[in-house]
Amino acid sequence: MTETVRIPTYEGDASFPAYVARPAGEPKGAIIVIQEIFGVNAGIRGKADHWASLGYLAVAPEVFWRQQEGIELDADVQDEFQQAIGFMMKHDFDAGIRDVEATIRWIRRTEGVEKVGLVGFCMGGKIAYEAATRTDIDASVGYYAVGLADMLNESHAIAKPLMLHIPTADGFVPPEQQKAMHEGLGPNRHVTLHDYEGLDHGFAAEHGARRNEAGAQLADGRTEAFFAANLA
After folding, report:
1. Domain range annotation of the chain
2. What are the pLDDT digits (tens) for 161-198?
């Protein structure tokens, strides 16, 4: 079953929309699905639906709701890609991580699911890292996370498992940033890093020209095993 719900903000002064996909039976855990810059579009809803099919409660909150609700953009349409960049540039990431905290709290208190993981893509990969450093999320996964090289000073706060999928030909994360990520995070026993040789940003998108089927299947299989181990 799927529905759109409204989750109260951490401060309790507003609420934001989230797409929720429920499993057929009692959830074995919950997974927050954090969008790319293109909103909670068909691809993100598809990822949430997949997690529900595996027995998890899946929740995909709208990240840009303070700017506009109901954003659904296509990465393969240039005008829409530019719109998405604009939304990201105006996004308040500090407010956004409080929305993640609010979502965790809603899942645990309202839905009664204690174990909560988070998977994020692109900008959502950065948020996955922030969740690992700034919240009590039980496990988190970031696909082609952007901007982490500038946030490695937070890595000491990682206390729960974090997995990052890093395409080596990522046009938004150049080699020197990837090197810094490996050097800064590799020694951390809570962190698992996977490189994908020759793949580019967006390789695990559900739809569109960016998807690399073999790479997506490999990364998604690793993510499924990671959550099965850490949300048990």
Report:
1. 2-230
2. 999 999 999 999 999 999 999 999 999 999 999 999 99
Largest Cα span, the chain: 46
Residue stretches of the chain with pLDDT short of 70: none
Point out the residues that are catalytic.
Answer: 170, 201
| Residue from 155, 168, 70, 38 nearest 47 by CA | 38
d(CA 187, CA 56): 31
Task: Please tell me the distance from the alpha carbon of residue 170 to that of residue 83, in angstroms, as a whole number.
Answer: 21
> pTM for this one?
0.97
Task: Please give the Cα distance from 36 to 7 (Å, whole number).
Answer: 20
In 10 A of CB 212, how many CB atoms? 18
The single residue listed with the structure tokens 């839905």 is 111
The pLDDT score that the predictor gives to residue 225 is 98
CATH of domain 2-230: 3.40.50.1820
